[in-house]
Specification:
homodimer; about 250 residues; Multidrug-efflux Transporter Regulator, Chain: A, Domain 2; Globin-like; 3 domains; about 0% strand; DNA-binding
Chain lengths: ~250, ~250
DNA sequence: GTGCGGCCTCCCGCTACGTGAGGGTCAACC
DNA sequence: GGTTGACCCTCACGTAGCGGGAGGCCGCAC
């Protein structure tokens, strides 16, 4: 059982070197190795490769692909949905370009020569869109989200450990304040909220108060996040959310 | 008049560095320079840039773009037509991919896990197409045509001169044979046809007999080629075509 | 005349591999 | 059991298409 590099390469239509490369950079390592050092790919590896190739085809840098595939709570279906969405956007853009080319052909056959602006405005119009709204277009997310991905994608294992440790300390402190009966809009809670915000800014992205509020709301709304807090103390998630809001309100007044 | 690098960059939505690069590799050099060495781009340069960006967007390597833009007898309209064609193919491919993703989603929600072949067959099916028929897809041409482009793109002016001289000699010899009353399926004519084929193989691409037959047919069908032969002697084009066919028939029997 | 933005030319760095070199591995076939 | 040929391994250097600075000249305003 399992597949050799050559088999996988033929199946997927890539070169062996490409698979070696993906192994090197940790994007797609074989599940096992034989005693003699041969790579053995499992079915799960193949599925991963499928997604890798898809995102690559859509122009994503490999580093980013690694991040989005490793992102917790993302399963096959969400990836497929996202890929479908991306494909549709892409098709739309190409259609616009085709229409622009048609216009250019008309203009050309009619002997009209385009002004320099028209030249790129008419069918190079997809470029500004690509720059200003690229992050948006790709992720339906925010610029901060992108920034986060990039930064965190470059973190070493050590960085992750320290990041996690810091996060754990803050959570612990919140739990203490909560169980200790301190109000969510009190000094201590707000202090912790501010610390939390600083923590995010340091490690992930420029966390404004507005974004921070959104995060707080998300914590209570999204079970995956709540799962990180509730074990400490029932109701802690809501407490943290309230503290964040109180802190943001104070800071912006 | 004319545009500076910065202006062109903003117009076209690329960086100054990119324009510098295109200048370096000779893909897109400014029509002029100011006394102080500043680049000055003309309207013609802008049009060229427009096409460059388009082909680039469609995934063509810059070297190839240079060749197809410099290829004689290609005007704006033919490029626009080609671009439109390429866009449509591209859209078609993306649609296939989208359909494949939909199927994958169905399979996934139904709890069916794909076999390894299906995984890439189902929606990686565009890859064989991309390899085996890429030249076809891109050019509506043959692999030999591609090979030709590559080789001829790397020829120096000297090479071109020798190439042209050789070609002229062969044509001259054909004209002599023709006006001398030698039959198109005679020894001499076939000898010249073989020489012609060797000439192409040496300079352009591996010219099989089948391709050679196609070339002969094209010579009579396409006025641009005929224009090269007819001035030597009226009917020469047809004569050459017949000689080529006779030679090919003999060689393959 | 002194900024300040734009332009110039190196030149090094990055990604996603291509392309050998040099050398083990494995199944088959004699 | 030896040899052959297809396949595998790990370096390690090369390439395309730029990004991004360094160090320095140009040109126009104040």
């Amino acid at each position: 059982m399992g597949y050799s590099v050559g088999q996988v390469a033929r199946l997927a239509g890539v070169t062996v070197r490409t698979l070696h490369h993906y192994d090197e950079i940790g994007l797609m390592s074989p599940g096992q190795r034989t005693a003699s050092g041969y790579r053995r790919y499992t079915d799960a590896d193949l599925e991963r490769l499928q997604h890798v190739l898809f995102y690559r085809e859509l122009g994503f840098p490999l580093e980013e692909i690694a991040v989005i595939l490793d992102e917790p709570g993302s399963d096959t279906l969400t990836h497929l949905k996202r890929q479908h969405e991306l494909l549709n956007r892409r098709i739309g853009r190409l259609r616009e370009m085709a229409a622009a080319v048609e216009r250019a052909m008309e203009a050309n056959t009619m002997g009209i020569s385009l002004t320099p602006e028209e030249r790129f405005e008419i069918f190079g119009d997809f470029r500004p869109e690509e720059h200003e709204a690229e992050a948006e277009e790709r992720w339906g997310g925010t610029e901060a989200f992108e920034q986060s991905r990039r930064r965190m994608g470059k973190m070493t294992k050590d960085d992750w450990a320290r990041f996690a440790a810091e996060a754990a300390r803050t959570t612990e402190a919140f739990a203490e304040a909560f169980t200790g009966g301190l109000p969510a809009d009190g000094e201590r809670a707000m202090e912790l909220a501010e610390e939390h915000r600083a923590h995010i800014t340091r490690w992930c992205y420029d966390c404004t108060y507005e974004i921070h509020r959104g995060l707080g709301d998300m914590y209570v709304a999204d079970a995956r996040f709540a799962a990180n807090y509730e074990p400490h103390a029932a109701g802690l998630t809501q407490y943290i959310r309230d503290a964040i809001h109180a802190n943001a309100d104070r800071a912006e007044s």
